[in-house]
């Protein structure tokens, strides 16, 4: 913390002056680059003319759809390796009319952290070098820089103490910055809540280039960054998180059932019991290749899990030989790789296999009937181009936290439904076929999922929901509501109000960034 404060003092003597508004300034790319070079080493500034630009841009591109020539690429990539570089980039961007997008792990499903479908003249702040993790084992806390991955955080926590864990997602290559900014759901969330529920401080560079922590940013901004979606309010360079207690030994299993082995009936039953299972038990379902796989993490021993499953879900037929006992950190290996026969060091591999991707998500508040699942399976899941379907249960700690406690509003649903479409082959025909399938099944399940609005997890970003439009010099709040209330429900207006306070000129913007809330006299009557 002392080093952060020293950086703040040092930054005050920089010769760069920040104007009161960047919105009315046309982009001055040469001036922006010159401004950067005053305080950032040239080796960290990558332009399209440099040999390093394309390798760096592609280094964490997880969705090949956004490696195609179509999307707009950044004017420059700043590979920041200290907080002062982030501050300089923001201040120079405001001064010269160049907006800034932030990339931590590059897992944004629609590529908005490093590319654009609508905007020009933007720079990318790549935080991959800001990846330090400092664990305070005495207090069971850690400071984690945004460029670290979830796998690196899991490994560091367990290295400090075998009984330390952290509630976050199942993909270890996801960047901490983006994941926590969107809420962060995973296998420990029914026990301990979202990642964002376990954030206790943060260091943010705001739109003025100032360095803020929880006490100086105020409660509204601290609320907004913990689930309000990445990069709308500033650049979070590091997070202080609460590590949670896990047993020395946990138990996992993966049980597959085909359609002829009552898979549809089991899924139907799963809906009714999964959200109400004991908090120590997380049981998800993945449907792929005509099979439903029931995958579990239990914070206890196998004998206890056999008894629990027998009491709550005997239809699955889970037996002791299905169990694998291991440390919690090895369970994170199991959930991602499908096997525990790999060392925990596999979590430190930052490279993820690249595919063409399109993802859609929903939330379910009432169980779908057996007939509905039968129809969904036969009409959509048996097609050759069918995607992976993931069902993740809520309940437990998730349901006991108010939907307004953080911007993530979906806590009271039974489960989350995700359609994850990925393919390796290149070409327009392959892409159109896959997109047609996922959009078709999304329309098909509409009668069975959340309504008014249809609720979507912001970490599974989907541009089909709508994109921003700029009116005057800022993003239109009225137009952004079309997609924003699907992600945030009633919290969207509060997020926009926070945006008005901390970034009224809308410097941090992308196709689905939070817009400033206009003064009441400019709002439609329905909003007043």
Automatic annotation (TrEMBL):
GO terms for molecular function: FAD binding; oxidoreductase activity. This is FAD-binding PCMH-type domain-containing protein. InterPro entries: BBE, FAD-bd_PCMH, FAD-bd_PCMH-like_sf, FAD-bd_PCMH_sub1, FAD-bd_PCMH_sub2, Oxid_FAD_bind_N. It comes from the Eukaryota. Pfam families: BBE, FAD_binding_4. The keyword tRNA-binding does not apply. SUPFAM superfamilies: FAD-binding/transporter-associated domain-like (SSF56176). Belongs to the oxygen-dependent FAD-linked oxidoreductase family. Its cofactor is FAD. Keywords: FAD, Flavoprotein, Glycoprotein, Signal. PROSITE patterns: FAD_PCMH (PS51387). It comes from Digitaria exilis. Residues 1-22 form the signal peptide. Residues 69-246 form the FAD-binding PCMH-type domain.
């Amino acid at each position: 913390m002392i080093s952060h404060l020293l950086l703040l003092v040092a930054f005050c003597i920089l010769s760069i002056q920040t104007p009161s508004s960047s919105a009315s300034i046309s982009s001055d790319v040469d001036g922006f680059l010159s401004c950067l070079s005053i305080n950032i080493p040239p080796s960290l500034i990558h332009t399209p003319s440099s040999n390093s630009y394309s390798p760096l841009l592609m280094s964490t591109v997880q969705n090949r759809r956004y490696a195609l020539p179509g999307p707009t690429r950044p004017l420059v990539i700043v590979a920041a390796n200290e907080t002062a570089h982030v501050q300089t980039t923001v201040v120079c961007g405001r001064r010269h009319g160049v907006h800034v997008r932030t990339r931590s792990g590059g897992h944004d499903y629609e590529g908005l952290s490093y590319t654009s479908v609508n905007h020009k003249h933007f720079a990318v702040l790549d935080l991959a070098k800001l990846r330090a993790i400092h664990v305070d084992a005495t207090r069971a806390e850690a400071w984690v820089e945004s460029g670290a991955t979830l796998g690196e955080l899991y490994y560091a926590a367990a290295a400090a103490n075998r009984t330390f864990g952290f509630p976050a997602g199942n993909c270890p290559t996801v960047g901490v910055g983006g994941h926590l900014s969107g809420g962060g759901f995973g296998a420990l969330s029914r026990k301990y809540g979202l990642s964002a529920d376990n954030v206790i401080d943060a260091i943010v560079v705001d739109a003025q280039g100032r360095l803020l922590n929880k006490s100086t940013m105020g409660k509204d901004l601290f609320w907004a960054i913990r689930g309000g979606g990445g990069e709308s309010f500033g650049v979070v360079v590091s997070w202080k998180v609460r590590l949670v207690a896990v047993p020395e030994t946990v138990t996992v299993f993966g049980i597959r059932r085909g359609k002829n082995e009552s898979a549809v009936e089991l899924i139907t039953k799963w809906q009714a019991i999964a959200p109400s299972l004991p908090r120590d038990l997380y049981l998800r379902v993945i449907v792929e290749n005509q099979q439903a796989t029931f995958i579990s993490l239990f914070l206890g021993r196998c004998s206890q899990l056999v008894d629990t499953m027998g009491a709550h879900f005997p239809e699955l037929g889970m037996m002791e030989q299905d169990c694998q006992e291991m440390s919690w950190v090895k369970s994170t290996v199991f959930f991602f790789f499908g096997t525990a026969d790999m060392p925990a060091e596999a979590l430190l591999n930052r490279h993820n296999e690249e595919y063409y991707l399109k993802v859609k998500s929903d939330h379910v508040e009432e169980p779908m009937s057996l007939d509905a699942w039968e129809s969904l399976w036969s009409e959509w899941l048996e097609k050759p181009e069918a995607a992976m379907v993931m069902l993740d249960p809520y309940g437990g700690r998730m349901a006991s936290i108010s939907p307004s406690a953080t911007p993530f509003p979906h806590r009271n649903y039974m489960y989350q439904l995700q359609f994850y479409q990925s393919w390796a082959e290149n070409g327009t025909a392959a892409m159109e076929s896959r997109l047609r399938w996922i959009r078709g099944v999304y329309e098909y399940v509409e009668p069975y999922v959340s309504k008014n609005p249809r609720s979507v997890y912001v970490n599974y970003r989907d541009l089909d929901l709508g994109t921003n439009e700029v009116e005057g010099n800022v993003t239109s709040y009225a137009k952004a509501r079309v997609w924003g209330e699907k992600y945030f429900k009633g919290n969207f207006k509060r997020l926009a109000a926070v945006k008005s306070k901390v970034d009224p000129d809308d410097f941090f913007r992308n196709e689905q960034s939070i817009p400033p809330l206009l003064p009441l006299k400019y709002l439609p009557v329905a909003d007043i």
